[in-house]
Amino acid sequence: MAESNSGGGLVIKPMDQFNVQSLSGGDLMPFFIPSNVTLWMALCWIGIVIFLVVGTRKKSYVPDRFQMIVEIIYTFVRNMVRDVAGRDALPFFPYIMTAFLFILFSNLLGLLPMSFTTTSHIAVTATLALIVFLSVTIIGFIRHGFGFLGLFWISSAPAILRPILAVIEIISYFVRPVSHSIRLAGNMMAGHALIKVFAAFAGVMGFAAFVPIIAITAVYGLELLVAVIQAYVFTILTCVYLKDALHPQH
What we know:
- The protein is 64% helix and 2% strand.
- The chain is mainly alpha-helical and 250 residues long.
- Strands 1-2 form a two-stranded antiparallel sheet.
- The termini are far apart.
């Protein structure tokens, strides 16, 4: 993370925490070799299963705290899907709920000491974004055929502007998976890198280390908020894109 160079200065390497490393210490090729990414993704899924199983095992009319948390998250995501994309989007709720929990748990696990934040890697977030992009596109053509292309034709605009706006809409549509993935990965990476920088200074400042420690505490609290917000943002954008597929008319 930080080391002294030959001139006596401090060299900080906050991005080293995002390196993908083989668990066996060897080469990452072939692709099925376990790495720190696959380890923490597996721990994320295990955590989700335990969370849901423990939270729903009693199914009491008077829920305990654990069951209440599960029910609040379930209701929150379901209402989001219904309110943003419409009732006809509810059949797609299981996937959206799964994506929300995966991103949320990955973000929160990444805040643990010595952990690895899988959602800080563009390969992970891009895969999630491409699944959403391809799914809503396929759903749009299945539901509406070539009528789905009406999404790009703004009939309410002046006739002379419609072709120009159509080109802008098409470009905007194909940029969606890029912005969808970079937003999540960038936000998770930036906060973690900042914490590592402050931690490096805390290790060399002696009695004055309380200053970066206070900064770390503040940034850590912000990162906890960002972890939840980014899961929400990714999910609500998924609902918006699904709405466009189900109701492409402007």
